[in-house]
């Protein structure tokens, strides 16, 4: 069961810790101020003080954050969310840059592109694709570990002159563990020693059978340097998205995940949020991990102010009370008091965890000093 320290319990009731200890003594319990008591005992103490106790748990929080299940007719197609993975130097960053430059909306909207951890491109047909531009396996696994499963499709970059390497295999493993379909981007096809066939053959050993080998994994030959094949890659992503039927209900309270968060001089805490369902609006009250806030402003991936952001749209959110962590879940709630309560509960859990870790750390320090 959830435990709470005597001090914390006193703080939460705005009572003196000494009085809590006295009340525990009356129940026949000797406790010190730093001692943890179980939630049943805590409830008795709370009743003794005449407070109404409210037991909050992570499952309560989840319930409050999640709205109703969407009915199938409310779901509308949304842009697929793509993460680029692959071995170091195979061209992940170059490919993300090249794809971003291929955006046809860039000319329309103008504005300087901002690095906010994710961006969206519009292809000539008008369809959109969202790319998480924090490549690397750590970002992907870290987000997943924190419960943010936002990636629909993994683009596996393999350099045609180098073939399958250690981190390629690792990326395949991560994508499979996440249940994300893979599209293979055979990069650096402009090089004279490029050997795309070798890449396709080597992939067989890792149970990736591309279409050319009569499998069902899409693969595209590209060059981030010459931009060759980028349109084909985008087509493949959109085709895969259609097969996956990526959809979301835009007409509900927004939910999403924090992609990036930092404290900025003059702007306060800023988080890039990828909306997964619903629509986020200026003025909305939200919880992001153990932080909360009210949306003061939303900025898109060009740094332009927008009033709202629908599913698969990455936006910078201003108006946070503190700085959340990448991978934290994001959700709009009904009231400020609800947002506060959830954030306070989660902060308390974090504090208790770090207190335990701290205690452990100091014992280790003590031992290593001997
Ligand atoms: P990352 O480590 O996977 O992010 O790889 P980078 O994007 O940093 O690229 C590694 C190196 O490969 C850089 O020197 C790039 O200029 C080069 N590179 C990337 N893509 C291509 C390509 O399509 N063709 C050629 N010739 N070089 C490329
Ligand atoms: Mg890179």
Q: Please give the share of residues in helix.
A: 25-40%
- Helix and strand element order: EHHEHHEEHHEEHEHEHEHEEEEEEEEEEH
Bound molecules: guanosine-5'-diphosphate, magnesium ion
Q: Which radius of gyration do the C-alpha atoms yield?
A: 25 Å
User: pLDDT average, as an integer?
Assistant: 89
| Count of discrete alpha- or pi-helical segments spanning 4 or more residues | 11
General form:
elongated
Largest sheet: 6 strands, mixed
Record field, number of beta strands = 19
Which structural class do you get from the secondary structure elements? Answer: alpha+beta
Are there runs of 5+ residues with pLDDT below 50, and where? none
- Strand order of the main beta sheet, please? 5-6-4-7-8-9
- Distance from first to last alpha carbon: 36 Å
Write up what this structure looks like.
By secondary structure, the chain is α+β, with helices and mostly antiparallel strands. The protein has eleven helices and 19 strands. 35% of the residues lie in helices and 25% in strands. A hairpin with a 5-residue loop joins β5 and β6. The chain starts with a strand and ends with a helix. The protein binds guanosine-5'-diphosphate and magnesium ion. Guanosine-5'-diphosphate binds at residues 86, 88-94, 187-188, 190-191, 223-225. The site of magnesium ion (MG) has 3 residues, from α5. Belongs to the TRAFAC class translation factor GTPase superfamily. Classic translation factor GTPase family. IF-2 subfamily.
